[in-house]
């Protein structure tokens, strides 16, 4: 799933027409390039390109295979699809993106069109954005260091608005996300558990930062200058509320 947050000057209708035109052009260019590099199975690869250009979101190889279900089974072969996608990437029609803890995806690469990504660590949703102030600022910083920047990618990991709105206000520490800052609102459990946590300095009102919340191991949190490892039983007993301080209504401009 993907949402685009492009700024003004890109009306949706106008954009849709533009996209169709862009794709027709890319298709023509690609068939010429394939012929120029003496590629095999040109017709098959063009069929893949058509399906790929037909969706406006990040696509995994299995997702792409799913789009080819009504085609010859030879076109659904993951190896053939991977080879073809690599060709698209090499020729500048697609871009490969591997976000943390996610399957590799491919997206369209339109010349001169740059965007960055928000990745929800809870549901995996990828949201695209472009902010010209941010882009300029990056170039300015690079120039200040005498660095000639050629390309960059910005990936911001966090919790999307949908996931955040579905969450309880107060929740056990086990359900928080890596990087999240939380405040302890309650310590639950029997006296021994409360005592154990209190002996570690954990009590109501304290702020914690979730350093790692890997279900396979203990949860690592930072309490002021100290890092603590909490097993799932302990983390389950600590009820917290989200306490990151960032603007509640941040505006994205193009
Ligand atoms: Zn950027
Ligand atoms: Zn989400
Ligand atoms: Zn993207």
Explain this structure to me?
- This protein has 254 residues and is of the alpha+beta class.
- Helix content is 36%, strand content 22%.
- The strands form three sheets. A six-stranded antiparallel β-sheet has the order 7-12-8-9-10-11. A four-stranded mixed β-sheet has the order 1-5-4-6, with no helix packed on it.
- Mean pLDDT is 88; it is low at 1-11 and 250-254.
- The structure holds zinc ion (3 copies).
- Residues 58, 107, 115, 117, 128 line the site of one zinc ion.
Short description:
The chain is of the alpha+beta class. The protein has 8 helices and 12 strands.
Topology:
Blueprint: E1 2-5, H1 12-36, H2 42-53, H3 61-67, H4 78-90, E2 94-97, E3 105-108, E4 116-120, E5 126-129, H5 132-144, E6 155-158, H6 161-166, E7 170-172, E8 181-187, H7 191-199, E9 207-212, E10 219-223, E11 226-230, H8 232-237, E12 238-242
Parallel strand pairs: 1-5, 4-6
Antiparallel strand pairs: 2-3, 4-5, 7-12, 8-9, 8-12, 9-10, 10-11
Helix pairs in contact: 1-2
The structure holds zinc ion (3 copies).
Residues 120, 122-123, 125, 160, 162-163 line the site of one zinc ion.
